[in-house]
Amino acid sequence: MAAVRVLPASPNWYSSRCSDASGDGRLFGFAARHRVCLLDVSAGAPAFYGELVGHTERISGFTFCPCAGQSNLCASSSDDGSVKIWDAEALAAVAEYSRHQNAISALHWSPLVKDLIVSGDEKGIVVCYWHNRSDSQQFFPEPRTVFCLTCSPHHENLVAIGYKDGMVVIIDISRKREVLHRLRGHDDEIHCLAWCPVPGEEKFSAWQDELLQVGPSEEGRVPNGELTQDTTTKKGCYLASGSKDQTIRIWSCTRGRSVMTLKLPPTKRRGGAIDPAVKERIWLTVHWPSGRSAEIVSSSFGGELLLWDLTQSGKRKWTLLGSSDGQNHSRIVFNLSSVKHQDKELLFSISMDRDVKCWDLSTLDCSWTMPTLGGFVYSLAFSPVDTGCLAVGVGDSMIRVWNTLSMNNIYDVKTFWQSIKSKVTALSWHPTKEGCLAFGTDDGKVGIFDTFSSSAKNKPPQISSTYHKKTVYTLAWGPPTPPLSSGEGEGPSVTLYSCAGDGIVFQHNPWNLNGEANDINKVIRDTNSIKHKLPAHTEISWKPDGKLLALGNEDGSIEIFQAPNLKLLCTIQQHHKLINAIRWHHEHGSQPELSYLIASGSINATIYVHNLKSVVESSSDGPVTITEPFRTLAGHTAKITSLSWSPHHEGRLVSACYDGTAQVWDVMKEEPLCNYRGHQGRLLSVQWSPVDSDSVYTGADDFSVHKWHISKQEHTQPPQGKKSIELEKKRSMQPKVKSKKKKKPIGKSPAKQDLSDAVNGDESAKETLLEENGVSDQEGEKAAEEAELPDKASTIVSKDPSSSTCDYSSFSLPKPFVTQKTTPVKKDPPKEKQISDASLKKRKPRSILPFSTFMDHRSKDELYQDCLKLATCLKAKDNNEDVSPDLKDRIHLGLFTDRASLHKMIDVEGKHHLENGHPELFQQLMLWKGDMKGVLQAAAERGELTDQLVAISPMVGYQAWVWTVEAFAKQLCFQEQYVKAASHLLSIHKVYEAVELLKVNHFYREAIVIAKARLRPEDPILKDLYTSWAALLEKDGHYSMAAKCYLGASSPYDAVKALSKKGDVTSLKTAAELALISGEEELAATLSFRCAQDLLLSRNWVGAQEVLQQHRTLFGQRLVFCLNELLCKCLSERNPCDRKSPVPPCYHTWELNREASFIDMVIEVWQNVFGMDSTEQATCAQEQLRSIEHPPSTNNTHPKQVLFHISHDLALAALSYQTATWDEAVKSILGAVTRSYDAGNFTLMQDICSILLPEGCDNLRHKLDSTNSQSMAACRSLEAFVAYSQLYDLWWNPPKESLVLQKAALDPVLCPSEQTALENSYISGQSSSEETSDQTALETDEKLYNTTEVCRHETEGDSGTSSVDLTDRQSKLNACKVLLSEETAALQNTQRDIAEVQQILADMIHQHQQQRDNLQENTNGSTQESTIQQRSETESDKPCSESNQMNGKDEIKEPITLPELTKQLLKAKQKLAEFPDNLKVFSFPNVLECCLVLLHTGSQCPRDLHEQALHLLKEHGSANTYKKAVRRFLT
After folding, report:
1. Sign, Cα dihedral of 591, 597, 601, 605
2. Which residues contact 553 (CB under 8 A, 6 or more apart)?
3. In what order do the strands lie in the sheet with 537-542?
């Protein structure tokens, strides 16, 4: 007869389909470890139907046959590769096949072919099996791990397969055997596949945006390019897939691609019990309810279930199942399956939270919840206060409290998991306080839960601070004993006693669990004056009235003590094996004497009942020993694990046993009444129902609790003989506990249980804690270690070493005797290899006296001879005391004679050690002998000194010690252990040597520490260390570290220098600040200026000013920087640049007076911002700036550098304005203009002229002293440059009407202006340095580019804004007269001649040197000279060779001799000397270039200017370039 109610084993985890509902809607089955549990779900509440038992490994898949008329058939697959087919109604196997070589990971029964079962395994092989004809086919579509598979409900040949890597494949299993689609889209494990229950692929409105329109050409095509003619597949059907990547995809089977992707929403966790630190797990299973093509149910993150409406567009496509709190699962859901039930559709879900739930899909509410268990049921306890409240202690680290009397929900179970984290092995309710439940665990923890309060669900328990070292076996509430019983009325009325595998019973104070618990052995010893060792206790039981305590022991004895002082009344010597269970009879019967009955069970199968009435009432002084039982209950065939008296009868007892049955006894008649055999494993706990005299609850290692009726059982006594064998067989089908450890002999293994050396073959610890669920039971709600391995992993080693090798059939294993010391508890699993007894012993250390030891282990005769020889020698010694006895070859007898002989023995032993390569043993012997000096010298010579020898050396004497340390230091240096060597030198006070040693080997840091710690601060060696280290650091580029060293050596100047070496802004800034702190103000100013210049390059004027403002001496520079900033601002406003610079400029936000002239605006900012009001300040700044000379600019000078130098000149000019020294102002402005001219930056020169002198120079000229010829010359020069810039302006911006003509002339223009550019290279003697023709050409290119640009703009622009007023142009052209200076033209021509001659001379000298180097032998001088002349002749032709060819003429020059050249040079220099100095000092634009430009302006040029320009060109244009350029104007 099956049980009435069952809390079954938990469904397996991490399996794509291990639960299913039958087609007729009557049964729901799920795989639990290696069995299938069937529930009858046809009524409103679930009822346990039975189990399918037969597999020996974990079941990985379970499926019912969906075909009508076969709804009782189902199939299950296992990790061992086998598939079984069952008749569910009969609970019997029908067939079995094994076509897989690997673990099966997916299974499905075809909905269309009634005998087809499809399975897939971890290596990717798919097997189709037709069981009616026992025929099978294998497919291997992909070499990947199959995770799930589903047969199509519309096309009998289509199977969809999901793989571990996210691939989904649809195969045709008909004769074609082809892969129809490979669906790629997911990028992680496919957890579930579900076909749409409605065929066809009509689109939903919400999908329009997500679907590509399929053209007629695409119909019937497959991505793989294979055309399928099959009409059935053409019709198509949708397929849904759920993946670990947190998405659900809907696939079209006709097009072979994803048409919709649903992303899991981040739902709020409700009542979730996952530690936030644990990474969120996800298992995404999907279910497409029958007949609903637009709705899909899926799992989500925390256990929520979502109903997706595929017709909804937008984000919110889902609804949460379970409206009220607590309806949802609290952990991930693995499987969903549904049945039609009358008018409703029901959905079943299994989850990691170990609940099976049933949902009504019409209301989305949870109809019922069936709790399940994930571990052995170790303990059952009914509350004495809240009747019918059953606490269940389970190996999955959770306690279930089951209200068995609940009317509306027969499975009303609360779960408690907080802080348990280990198997719950013992439970006990407080006798009077409601909801107070004590628990004990496998790791020795004792705690108390409050199960009653409303917040109790999430309230952690109180945990006792005293832990047992091993598994807690029993808990009992009882009266307080000393020391808790001593106080009057202030202590608790009952205290908690715990007994565990360490043999100790603790008394815990429930009012103060943090306090130390008391070991009751102390009280027992004191009260009974016991001196001997007390036996280890394994069971504890208080008589209900609290007057007597029974303790069961490991040796099988039971001791009865009297409360409160625990006086020993009697000892029961009946069992001879470890006691497992003791129970006192209840007190409320009609025969009060029965309350003295005590029943006990042990590892022996017999139960004994003793009556202690006479013992308690007799007044004997000493304790009594009882050896005869009152009643004996025999019949079980294995160890007794638990007992329970019936509260409804007198003398009726139920026992739980390892033989797999529970037995009800009539104790007085010694008669078996009924036997329950419904469990599939060994029983561990039993409780008689307190409310129903016919009901008993049992818990077993099959992970279940059964409630069964006594009256309904067919058997009356435990199975004997054949029946017993069948039960054994049934149990042996349970999976053997697989452990990956190698099998080993059960020797002295580091047992977790208290296994002692006396383990007999049939003994093990009390209630051996076997592995459960194939997983360690740490899958408790909160267990953070939650084995990511699912039930698959039957790898965690069992708690009991003996169980890992024997299978379940040998489980009549009792508790061992603890006769010897038990091994300490270790929580880690045993190591991979178990070492045998012998090798567990430590290896013996090498003998220090091997020779004499060996001699004392020879044959008996030899040893007798030794005795005689020794006696003889000692006798001789007595007679003649001075002579040392002669031991000859028996040296080892020196041990028993005098010192001289011992020394000889030590020498022989030492020699042996040295020969065998053990110098350390030789040294030890010499130390014993006292001859250390020799040892030290020998070791030093051989370089074998050690720390130990050095440590021992002082015993020889001070000198020897110092010598040894020095020798050791030398040895360490050879081994490159310099720091250690230095430490040893310090130990003999050789500080300087230690420091020097470290310094030489570049251990500066260590050397400085020692020197600073041990020497005087003023010792020069310290400074030397710092500077040497700094030099090394500087060499390696560690400047900041070097600077610290210099500072340490008190030379801040060097520190500043080191810091500034890197040269970047931050280094310079820091160096400048450091210099200021150190008082090096001049150096600080220099560095600050360098830093400011760097900041200027990155256009950060604000930063530059900040750096400069710290120094008074840099006031002038601050003015320059300010002017530079304003100038840059003006220039960028005049020519806004399209190109974005990489570094945006950082300007100050000064208020600027835009109306005033540039110089006035600058002076105003100086006054407002820098407070420069007085002329004294201006004069002072002028002196500062005049002291700085900037080199002349060339084409190669950086534009920003040029601009800075110009700013310097202009700052001087502005200061001169302020002090009204106009002569100086003109010179400074001229300096700025010529600098831009020399740098080849023409546009900059134009801009500066127009910014500074928008009205020309007349205003300035009036302020000058006209008698001062020099300043007048400077002003003339300045006017010339202004005119020069205007001249080009006029040429580039011709009036509108002449544009057409001008454009025609644009080409020829290029030629002369190119030549004039070339001319620049010959102008020497001016402040402009000689420039190479290349650079000048570049400059000209730039100008020409500008020319074309301007022309373009002019043509595009409108005449109103672009054309210059003609009269204005005329006046500007007349102003160009200043450029046509006869005198300057002559000067420039002379300078050109000089430059030309110098160039030829330089070339001749260069060739002469080259020739001299190349000549291998001496040749006569004249030939040499002639060659030089020839060379020079060709060279001098070069400048004009191009033009010659262009003209088509071949002008051959006469070769020039050296004397002629010298003559020419002298002549030219005399001519140059005749020119006035003022003319030579100031720069002037190239006069001939200006003449050419004027001629090019054509009709605009006034007649007189035209003639004067021609005259100058004829007169002074002797160079070829000019001759050629002017030719067209002369013809």
Report:
1. negative
2. 535, 536, 537, 538, 559, 578, 579
3. 537-542, 548-553, 557-562, 567-573, 624-626
Q: What is the SS3 assignment for 1075?
A: helix
Interval 1335-1352: pLDDT, tens: 343 343 334 434 333 333
Q: Which residues of 921-951 are buried (b: 16+ CB within 10 A; e: fewer)?
A: bbbbbbeebebbbebbebbbeeeebeeebbe
- Distance CA(300)–CA(1038), nearest Å, equals 57
Query: Quick one: pLDDT at residue 654?
Result: 96
Residue 1445 has pLDDT above 60, yes or no: no
Is residue 797 over pLDDT 60?
Answer: no
- d(CA 1047, CA 1039) in angstroms, rounded, equals 12
Chain-centroid distance of CA 35 in Å reads 41
Type of residue numbered 632: T
| pLDDT interval class at 1221 (50, 70, 90) | confident
Concatenated DSSP letters of 258-289? EEEEEEPP-PPPSS----TTSPPP----EE--
CA distance 285 to 305: 10
Phi, psi of 744 (to 5 degrees): -145, 155
Other C-beta atoms lying within 10 Å of the C-beta of residue 1209: 24
Task: Report how far residue 1081's alpha carbon sits from residue 1056's, in angstroms, rounded to the nearest whole number.
Answer: 12
Tell me the pTM.
0.54
Interatomic CA distance for residues 1076 and 1080, integer angstroms: 6
Residue 489, token pair as written in the block: 């009325």
CA angle in degrees (0–180, nearest 5) for 411-416-417: 130
Alpha-carbon distance of 263 to 253, in angstroms, equals 21
pLDDT of residue 723: 59
Average per-residue pLDDT in the chain? 79
Of 542-556, 1056-1070, 1406-1420, 1441-1455, the least confident: 1441-1455
Query: Per residue, what are the HEC states of 4-68?
Result: CEEECECCCCCCCCCEEECCCCCEEEEEECCEEEEEECCCCCCEEEEEEECCCCCEEEEEECCCC
Cβ contacts of 473 within 8 Å, gap of 6 or more? 425, 426, 440, 499, 500, 501, 538, 539, 766, 767
Q: What integer is the mean pLDDT of 1074-1091?
A: 86
Task: Give the integer Cα–Cα distance in Å for 1235 and 1206.
Answer: 7
Q: Tell me the mean pLDDT in the region 315-344.
A: 83
Which distant-in-sequence residues (6+ apart) come within 8 Å of 631 by Cβ?
A: 608, 609, 667, 668, 670
Q: How many whole angstroms separate alpha carbon 548 and alpha carbon 935?
A: 74
- How far is the C-alpha of 168 from the C-alpha of 147, rounded, in Å? 10
Task: Measure Cα distances from 1485 to 377, 1376, 1384, 1482 in Å.
Answer: 110, 11, 9, 10
Residue 177 burial (CB count, 10 A): 12
Tokens of 110: 């075809």
3-state secondary structure 1201-1221: HHHHHHHHHHHHHHHHHHHCC
Is residue 719 a contact partner of residue 638, using CB atoms and an 8 Å limit? no
CA diameter of the chain: 161
The dihedral over CA atoms of 1041, 1043, 1049, 1053, expressed in degrees to the nearest 10, equals 170
**CA–CA distance from 1307 to each of 1018, 1303, 1349 (Å)?**
82, 8, 14
Helix, strand, coil shares, percent, the chain, to 5: 40, 20, 40
Residues 840-854 have a mean pLDDT of 77
Please state, in angstroms and rounded to a whole number, the distance separating the CA atoms of residues 1334 and 289.
Answer: 87
CA dist., res. 876 & res. 901, Å (int): 14
Helix (H, G, I), strand (E, B) or coil at 1291: helix
Both tokens assigned to 1071? 């160096």
Contact 985, 1011 (CB under 8 A): no
* Helices H / strands E in the chain, number of each: 40, 57
632 against 1311, higher pLDDT: 632
Contact in structure between 1341 and 1348 (CB atoms under 8 Å): no
